[in-house]
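Run folding on both entries below.
>entry_1
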Amino acid sequence: MNPNFPDPFIYVPKRGDPQLLFVLLHGESAGPDQLFPLAQAIKQAFPLALVVLPYAFEIEPGSTHDKPCHHWVDPVGLDEGNYARRVEQALPLLIKQIQQIQAQYGLTGERTALAGFSQGACMALEASLAQPNLAGRVLAFSGLYASEPVQAPPATLLHFFHGAEDSLLVRDRVHFTLERLAELQGDATLDEASGVGHELHPALIHQAVVRLQTCVPLRNWEAALGALQAQASDAPDIILPDSSGRTLH
């Protein structure tokens, strides 16, 4: 990590070694404090989790020294035409940072969840796609991929959380992305909150914790189903469960 850059906020378990890692990525023109409510909810629900909130890499020109505004990509001259490229350029540093935290605490990608709001959500989604073993889950609040995905992460369960009244990210784009991921055999869920705009609303934070506590990744379900099928071949009377759903709730 850059020694001249602010250290991330790190919350460690009060007792015992961390069993899970959550890396929370704030949105554009903001800082880690934007995600403190999400961090608190995760800490309460998962007391053995390590929760890390890093600062984004770019500082907005003209922002004050006392409260600088951080961006994950260079905001100067940023537009739809160069956004995806700038995200791609920023990914190696973010991935390296996450891998360093994993190595320091002995936690694997399967035990890692990335969460982000807006531009942070985009970075989390793209990082898990660029490095398939980086995280077992991604929680994307009010954010999508930098460009239309051409593949889905093979080992990552994706949770999207969106405000139905979000004027910056219209719901049609979110629904299109979920349909596209389904075509690519991705494992994804979507929760929308009515009357909510482009914000990290408490209702969406609550639903994120519910998803983390109740959703079984499709890869785990398929592994269990495969074991049952193997047993059924030796015991024809076994009735197999329905496997039509993409994600268990």
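>entry_2
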Amino acid sequence: MSDQTDAAQGQEPPIQVIVVPVTGFQQNCSVIFDRETKRGAVIDPGGDIERIEKTLREHGVEVDKIVLTHGHIDHIGGAADLAERLGVPIVGPHEADRELIDRVEEQARQFGVAGVRRVDPDTWLDEGDTVEIAGRSFQVLHCPGHAPGHVVFFDAELRFLVSGDVVFAGSVGRTDLPGGNHETLIASIRDKLLPLGDDVTFLPGHGPASTLGQERKTNPYLR
């Protein structure tokens, strides 16, 4: 996946999505913004914040908030520093990830990652909440399994889902980390994501985008 990937397909949508793969984990930090107003949010700034800031400058994006899908280091490693630099709040994930987030500096030491600071979300999210991103209202779905407090963000009108590490193109999130549970993860996908519709395009936390219909048909973990 290139550093800057426009999620638009066909007719140009009102928002633009730029993917900035960050750190050695190649985590898909995403910048989502309104094409006209240039206001938007950064989702899961896992690190390499200079690269993220460079992307924001190049596209003239004014960031309202940082949004987190879950509390693993590769998704939150740069959140505290970026929020401080931009002067914006941190929103999400679900409070069930508080323990993971509290241990992020310990995670950093385990993975040999320097300069990671603990994150203090300004707002926790729960099932049924909505988050404004780029002037649009995204539904919040609590999808545990990969992490206890993992949330995803869905724009029903645009048929667009930010899925974090719940489901990938051809795979699903790993469940061998603290708080993970494979049966819970599959239930989250089966009961909350797949019913959204086969036409929904999703942007995962790693790797290329896909559609829920494609994964329903071909993903070996969902068949």
